[in-house]
Amino acid sequence: MNQLKYLVSAVAIFPFLPLMYLQGKNIRRKVPKLPEAGGPNGMEQIGAEKTIRLITIGESTIAGVGAPSHQEGFTGTLAKSLSEKLKVNTKWEVFAKSGYTAAKVKEQLIPKTKTSEADIIVIGLGGNDAFTLNSPAQWRKDINALIHEVKALFIDIPIVFINMPPIKSFPAFTPLIKLSIGNLVELLGNELEAITSNHENVYYYGRKITFDDWSERFGMENQPEKYFSDGVHPSLITYQIWAKDVADYIHKEVF
Predict the structure, then answer these.
(1) Is residue 69 very low, low, confident or very high in pLDDT (cuts 50, 70, 90)?
(2) Which of 64, 115, 117, 141 is most exposed, with minimal Cβ within 10 Å?
(3) Is residue 121 within 8 Å of residue 158, measured between CB atoms?
């Protein structure tokens, strides 16, 4: 069904591809190129007897583009929140690269995790697969291959895929790109939910990110511009809210 919706959508947007290309070039020209976060590993030490090992893997959001350091960004905040909720120390490590699709993550990043140990693995993907107009069928193939590769290295370790990026809310994007790419990322999210349901000990936190929802749940002002560092990537406060929300999901559904 997701593949059929993709094909129908592809036909509908085909006449607009030249315009989308020009708009995309203009966006890339205007959006500042921010560095990835520094400090790819660390420890959240609360003096507990037990320590868990967290690995995060993914694209620019996991790479922390827009955050000064991983300690302050998504992974460090996730580790801190897990430590608070589970009453454990959390040792963490990041394997991520801006611009990577699911296929590229499998090829380039997963081999780098071979010498690491983990008690939980958190993966953030979807944006780049949508930007490259990856189909749900290809996404399914790539995600399944990624899951099998991770499972082969980390046997019986829970894998958690986090929410898809809220592309329809990106301030830097035009209405045409928000609609077309935003619809595609939602299809990929639907596909990811179906994929993970077929794998034991693999989870997907599929709650759609909307700033109305965040404002209501976290008492934040509903001012989307505050949630982005450059109109595309999360701001520091977004990374921290997102990580705390994911930690709550992991606490309830995984541990």
Answers:
(1) very high
(2) 115
(3) yes
Looking at residue 247, what is its pLDDT?
98
pLDDT attached to residue 28: 80
CATH number of 2-253: 3.40.50.1110
The dihedral through the CA atoms of 233, 239, 245, 246 has a sign that is: positive
For residue 101 the two structure tokens come to: 């699709």
| Concatenated DSSP letters of 29-80 | HHS--PPPPB--EEEE--S-S-EEEEEEEESHHHHTTTSSBTTTSHHHHHHH
- Residue 141 Cα to chain centre, angstroms: 18
**pLDDT tens digits, 130-183:** 999 999 999 999 999 999 999 999 999 999 999 999 999 999 999 999 999 999
Distance CA 104, CA 146 (A): 10
Q: How far apart are CA 80 and CA 53, in angstroms?
A: 12
Q: Where are the alpha helices (DSSP H) in 132-205?
A: 136-153, 175-196
**Cα dihedral 108/113/115/120 (nearest 10):** -170
Question: pTM surpassing 0.90?
Answer: yes
Chain centroid to CA 15: 30
Pairing of strands 120-124, 51-58: parallel
* Token pair recorded at residue 5: 């919706």
Return the domain boundaries, the chain: 2-253
How far apart, in Å, are the Cα atoms of 76 and each of 88, 112, 205? Answer: 14, 20, 19
**In terms of residues, how long is the chain?**
255
Residue 216 CB neighbour total at 10 angstroms = 11
Stretch 221-238: mean pLDDT: 86
